[in-house]
Amino acid sequence: MTSTVYASTSSTESSSSEFERSPLFTELKNNAYEHLLNRIEELGAEFGRWSQAAIAQFVLMELDSFIRLHSVAVNEREALQVARALTRELTGLGPLQPLLEDPRVEDILINGHRNIYVSRGGMLQREDLHFKDDEHVLRIVRRILAPLGRRLDESSPMVDARLPDGGRINVIIEPLSIDGPSVSIRKFRKDPLTPAELVSLGAFNSDICRILEMAVQARCNILVSGGTSSGKTSLLNALASFIPSNERIVTIEDTAELSLNHNHVVRLESRPGGFDGSGHISIRDLLRNSLRMRPDRIIVGEVRSGEVLDLLQAMNTGHDGSMGTIHASSPRECLYRAEMLAGFAGFQGSEVSLRRQIANAVDFIVQIGRLSNGRRRLLSLTEVTGMTDNMISMQELYRYEPQVTADGQEIDNWVSLGISPHSPKLLNWWRMQQQVGNGGAR
Length: 442
Fold this sequence. Notes:
The chain is an alpha/beta fold. The chain has 3 domains: 9-91, no CATH class; 96-186, Beta-Lactamase; 195-437, P-loop containing nucleotide triphosphate hydrolases (Rossmann fold). The protein is 38% helix and 21% strand. It has helices at residues 16-20, 23-43, 45-48, 52-70, 76-91, 96-101, 134-145, 195-200, 206-217, 232-240, 283-290, 307-316, 331-344, 351-361, 424-437; strands at residues 105-111, 116-120, 123-126, 158-162, 168-172, 182-186, 222-226, 249-253, 265-269, 297-300, 323-327, 364-370, 376-388, 391-400, 403-404, 410-411, 414-416. Strands 9-8-10-11-7-12-13-14-17 form a 9-stranded mixed β-sheet, with helices on both faces. A 6-stranded antiparallel β-sheet has the order 3-2-1-6-5-4. It has a two-stranded antiparallel sheet with strand order 15-16. A hairpin with a 2-residue loop joins strand 2 and strand 3 (123-126). Helix 4 (52-70) crosses helix 5, helix 11 (283-290) runs parallel beside helix 12 (307-316) and helix 12 (307-316) crosses helix 14. Residues 1-14 have low confidence and may be disordered.
């Protein structure tokens, strides 16, 4: 900043965040932004060739001139805060920029220009940040969507897209969203959590981790069940790390979120149709095609429709070791939901034959949930054991039952029901391990 004489710096006693919440900050930022837009129009194409550092210097100089001209009562520190906010508007994503850069932020939820909520550690809280107006929200959102080639207007008022960093953005605008643009941004870690890290974070214990490792390596078919933001994708990423490095994995998702730490992964993503519905490629289309791609494992990011039939058939016809997630509140509800989705997809057989197909396909259901305190925990590890009296039978191996101390504090605790998994795949895996340990079969 040039050597401008600003108002008394006694206001430095107030924190930066307090000033950013003040009406003076908002008014100065909005007025200076209009001034900058006029100057940018005068510069024309020249401005588009500037580096971010050059734009930041331009903002400092123009803001200094604007403050002098209008005799705005701010000190140098406050002017620098406004300059940084304006630079983010011109080169970044405005109020969203600091949230996107914060590694603790998991979800960003915008309900109109004045209501921004953020999830940290599984807990939602309202942010003091806000946009100038709904048009400001749309301007930032379109800046996000432009490199993705996605359209957002009255003819296409809903968008669901994958961000370059692996996150996901969902936007819905008027006339469908009554109170202004609704934006949901889901962020993902650059380095997915490993099973060991999940154990250290308390998601499950080492005994459960060992069973999950055996199940994956023995090519058991696994469904990860849970609610929204319960950690299904993170757990699926972790489970995939147990897959041997010499196997070929095909992942299929609506919006690519999985980030597998594996040597040989083919990532497929569905494609929404155009305005007239043409060009739509569904998860079911991709799943059918993946069977011709010589996969050792098929991983479906989320089973939510007719693809459940194709996944069950794949699991039953030699593609053991496949995995997927599904929205359900319990292991039994997970099976009911699979039945319901298969029925909606037009399954032609009887209810009993469908249940038999599910029982033969799925080996384990891992139920995960987000607790009231925001912590994500494995709630149940259940094995599907077959059919009994035309019903799918299961046995729960571990159940989450936290202990409460005398002072009311909850301590994580998983209860083993004393049952060992008896899947034939695990028995075959143990035999193979013993043969390897003895130098191989002879």
